[in-house]
Amino acid sequence: MSDGLDAPALQRVRIDLAYDGTPFYGFARQRERPTVQGALEGALHRLIGQDVVVTCAGRTDRGVHSMGQVVHLDVNVDQDQGRRFARRVDEHPERERFRLDRLVGDAITIWRIASVDLTFDARFSATQRRYRYVVVDGPTIDPRRRNQVWHVGEPLALRAMQQGAKHLIGDHDFASFCRKAAGRHTRRRIDHITVARAAPGEIHVRLSGPAFCHQQVRSIVGCLVEVGRDTHDPAWMAEVLAAADRSVAARVAPPHGLILEEVVYGRRSDRTGPRGSRARLPGSG
Q1: Which domains does the chain have, with CATH numbers?
Q2: pTM of the model
Q3: Higher local confidence (pLDDT), 239 or 180
Q4: Which among 2, 81, 151, 270 counts the fewest CB atoms within 10 Å?
């Protein structure tokens, strides 16, 4: 039975962005604490003149960074302000990107803003999520990078870490590496994982797959570092995986070394990437 009220006409908008996670208590909105979602929704309210809610491709924890986050929001175009905003996005997307970029603050960069079909969902339309974790195993570190890397301060055995990582590729129950969440399963698929020395004293761990559970990447890196320290041999990674027991894994790597690099969608044109004026995440090259 109808209540006599028509649903508002909506226009969906996609935003690609990057952020330095240092000043934020994660992505998700929290009362009286700075978050990426809070900053973005506040800026959008000033820009559009409407309260909006953004949906992201993947929530990040406190201190975690991103170079390729994607969000979507729905604008009520039955209202004059929403209709004018939607028209500006269609006709002058770069101008609107610049305006939003000025409003969100220095810790966030807006790469792109565009109208999309209502079937697009930043979270559920994603086919791949790609992460990079940076470990510095040299004796010293550039102080400007302390909030972008994990400085372990001792040489790690790269070859052993590479061998250990191979045990995780494929579809598995990653219960040993995931923080428990009520009602959520821990079966995930890792399509690619590489461990490489990007520079003297610096190791990059890259992982990609359709989805990751809470703290999975950081827990994997924490275990790989223990293998690199020769605390365990590479085959230990398979033992941890098979145990499906969180207590057997090593300490979770700290959040500030982790970067959500890219979210991939079905068509090549839907891939994220830097299309704006600059990034504000030091040491992310």
Answers
A1: 10-125 (3.30.70.580), 128-261 (3.30.70.660)
A2: 0.91
A3: 239
A4: 2
